[in-house]
Design brief:
Layout lengths: L2 H11 L3 H4 L9 H9 L9 E5 L4 H14 L4 E4 L11 E3 L2 E2 L2 H18 L3 H16 L3 E5 L16 E4 L7 H4 L3 H8 L9 E3 L7 H10 L4 E3 H4 E8 L3 E7 L5 E6 L6 H17 L6 H9 L1 H5 L6 E4 L3 E4 L5 H12 L6 E5 L7 H5 L7 E4 L10 H10 L4 E3 L3 H11 L5 E5 L2 H7 L1
Parallel strand pairs: 1-5, 1-6, 2-5, 6-7, 7-8, 13-17, 14-15, 14-17, 15-16
Antiparallel strand pairs: 2-3, 3-4, 9-10, 10-11, 12-13
Helix pairs in contact: 3-6, 4-11, 4-12
Length: 427
């Protein structure tokens, strides 16, 4: 098989949550443990940082990997989902895993896959671990998929665990309260391994303190230690970042311009500080270089990504209420005449709750990505209409975006979002 045939075989034969939803979810680690045993336990052959959270984990993982790369470390990065090419998920110093390696991995292990019947994410995790072990990375930044405790990545023993935040998402799998969701995410905390929590909230802090204490894991809340503010915005965010005690200060420039990155910077800075104490040489110049080259060093896309000026076209993968709230707030504070929103969603989100967040004074272009899990654009439009939003239904993301471009004036703003997969098709 060539690469295209290999990926088609995997899509067709392995259940993939991001395409089909709940049918692909497996609430135990048995398959990944069998895969790791089959592969001679690659998960134990590299050092790692494990990153979980409702929002921000992809950005934090990518920024941290970028800083390690800038510091000269051979750095692995495992994230999900991908936008265009599966290989985006598995990178070393920003370079995607070679097509030939994906093909060989499938050819060498196909019979075992058909016996074990892993999900697409379980298989992807095993491939990432195998690739990082074979290539001898100095550090691998591993982002969880959906949860924590039962996530396929949760077979590593990392140098550091990071949980960015807790919010309402995937409740049907993780629990119907923030405390339950927090406990699932806290499942990545390992005995004696330091853990960083990005945000401290009354509803979840006791869960993290309890779990960390039971495992003798040093715990730090980044939002209690660091503070950040925007100094100016141009082609990048210029930030002042400092200890709350103001004994340490950084003036940094970040090429990712979403305001929500300010929260992620807190987790990042605390992670860097923790890893410096563990002996990693992550100097100020490496932080500066890494933050100004996140896309180059990690391949990150879809975070407040500007696709065009005049009209201003912005795409963002935020897809749940906490994430979209921050994105919509930034949109309303960005200068524009008229607002055009190209919007699509998947079926298992709080569609009604999300629709209530969107501005009524906007032109909507309803669409759906080409995946089975997508919410039909007509159904989305009906939900939107019930909440006072009006627009036109389109049969594809491409048609919706093209219509928005044709209607938009040069001083208008076009936002593309609602789903990672809408953004993937748009960019």
């Amino acid at each position: 098989m060539n690469y295209s045939e290999t990926i088609r075989y995997l899509f067709d034969s392995l259940p993939m949550f991001h395409r089909i939803g709940a049918a692909a979810y497996k609430a135990d680690l048995s398959n990944i443990l069998r895969l790791c045993e089959l592969l001679n336990h690659p998960e134990s052959k590299f050092r790692s940082v494990h990153v979980a959270g409702t929002n921000g984990k992809g950005s934090v993982s990518s920024m941290l990997a970028s800083v390690f790369t800038a510091a000269g470390y051979k750095t692995g990065l495992f994230t999900s989902p991908h936008l265009k090419d599966f290989r985006e998920r598995i990178r070393i110093n920003g370079e995607m895993i070679p097509e030939e390696k994906v093909i060989r991995f499938v050819e060498d292990n196909r019979a075992s896959f058909e016996e074990i019947k892993p999900s697409f994410f379980e298989w992807s995790t095993a491939l990432a671990f195998s690739h990082f072990a074979e290539e001898g990375v100095d550090m691998a930044i591993i982002e969880t998929g959906m949860g924590g405790r039962l996530d396929s990545t949760n077979v590593i023993i990392p140098e550091l665990s990071v949980i960015t935040n807790i919010g309402w998402d995937h409740m049907q799998f993780l629990g119907d309260s923030l405390e339950k969701i927090a406990r699932e995410k806290a499942g990545i905390i390992k005995k004696g391994v330091p853990v960083i929590i990005g945000e401290k909230h009354d509803e979840t802090k006791d869960v993290f303190c309890e779990v960390a204490d039971s495992l003798s894991s040093p715990l730090a809340f980044a939002s209690e230690i660091w503070a950040v503010k925007i100094v100016s915005v141009s082609d990048y965010l210029e930030l002042d970042v400092f200890w709350n005690e103001k004994t340490e200060y950084h003036a940094l420039k970040l090429e990712l311009k979403g305001n929500y990155q300010l929260k992620n910077i807190l987790s990042l800075m605390q992670a860097i500080d923790q890893l410096k104490h563990a002996g990693y040489k992550l100097e100020e110049k490496h932080i500066r270089d890494g933050l100004m080259n996140v896309r180059k060093y990690s391949g990150l896309q879809g975070r407040w990504q500007i696709l065009n000026h005049k009209p201003l076209i912005i795409a963002d993968t935020a897809h749940n209420k906490p994430g979209l709230e921050m994105v919509l707030n930034q949109i309303m504070n960005t200068d524009h005449d008229k607002l055009h929103i190209v919007l699509g969603m998947v079926q298992d989100k709080d569609v009604v709750g999300i629709m209530r967040m969107f501005p009524k004074k906007a032109n909507y272009y309803f669409c759906h990505p080409q995946i089975p899990r997508a919410l039909n654009a007509k159904d989305l439009a009906n939900h939107a209409q019930n909440e006072g939003l009006s627009g036109i239904v389109y049969s594809s993301v491409r048609d919706a975006l093209q219509a928005a471009k044709e209607r938009a004036g040069k001083n208008d703003l076009i936002f593309i979002g609602g789903s990672t997969f809408v953004v993937a098709e748009a960019i």
